[in-house]
């Protein structure tokens, strides 16, 4: 399918370009997100008539994004997560978690702006690109650990002291035990519900 781009789209083209894309990509993303129009003579004329307005609006959005990117330069986020001794997370860190952490840091971005290609499943330091505008992006470093100290140690590229490591391992064991208890409680509640029903014959988860 041929479409006219209404803004720059990464790896596709610039505003005003007519490009060929897969029909599903156009119907499910480009058209509903108002990033493109079907390439017809009528739409081409419509685009040319509104081109100056689109360019002015794009410039305004880009300048706003550049201001936010400037605030985010050098930003590092600390995320504390339950994990085993090997560093494997009990769960994962997804784009929505990064967006929430940015919000807590005073920067509001949409989840789709977080360019996390796959969920993070281990402690460590990660660099995640944040796309604020088709022409503006900024990298954010994220330290993930079982404690604040461990997360910051990952960001700084240093090892924890023996005492801190032992404390984190103890915390991991405690968190794992709590998860097991919660699962057992859930199973118990589910079983209780089944028993009561029998008496009447009729318990989610960059780079």
From TrEMBL:
Classification of source organism = Bacteria, Pseudomonadati, Pseudomonadota, Alphaproteobacteria, Rhodospirillales
Domain (Ribosomal protein L9): residue spans on this chain:
13-40
Asked if the record carries the keyword Oxidoreductase, the reply is no
The entry's function note states: Binds to the 23S rRNA.
List cellular component terms (GO). Answer: ribonucleoprotein complex; ribosome
Report the family membership: Belongs to the bacterial ribosomal protein bL9 family.
Q: What is this protein called?
A: Large ribosomal subunit protein bL9
Protein origin, superkingdom: Bacteria
Keywords in alphabetical order, please: Ribonucleoprotein, Ribosomal protein, RNA-binding, rRNA-binding
A GO molecular function held by the record:
rRNA binding
- Sequence segments annotated as region (Disordered): 178-207
Compositional bias segments (type: Acidic residues): 195-207
Cleavable signal peptide: none
| GO biological process, any | translation
């Amino acid at each position: 399918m041929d479409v006219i781009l209404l803004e720059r789209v990464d790896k596709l083209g610039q505003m005003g370009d007519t490009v060929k894309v897969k029909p599903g990509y156009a119907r499910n993303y480009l058209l509903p997100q108002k990033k493109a129009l079907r390439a017809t003579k009528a739409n081409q004329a419509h685009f040319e008539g509104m081109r100056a307005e689109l360019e002015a609006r794009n410039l305004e959005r880009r300048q706003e994004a550049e201001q936010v990117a400037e605030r985010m330069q050098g930003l590092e986020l600390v995320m504390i997560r339950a994990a085993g001794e090997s560093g494997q997370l009990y769960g994962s860190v997804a784009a929505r978690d990064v967006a929430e952490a940015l919000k807590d840091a005073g920067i509001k971005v949409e989840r789709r702006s977080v360019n996390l290609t796959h969920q993070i499943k281990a402690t460590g330091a990660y660099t995640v690109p944040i796309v604020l505008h088709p022409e503006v992006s900024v990298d954010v470093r994220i330290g993930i650990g079982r404690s604040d100290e461990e997360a910051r140690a990952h960001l700084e590229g240093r090892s924890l002291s023996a005492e801190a490591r032992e404390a984190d391992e103890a915390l991991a064991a405690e968190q794992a035990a709590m998860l097991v208890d919660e699962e057992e409680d859930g199973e118990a509640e589910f079983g209780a519900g089944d028993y009561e029903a029998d008496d009447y014959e009729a318990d989610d988860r960059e780079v």
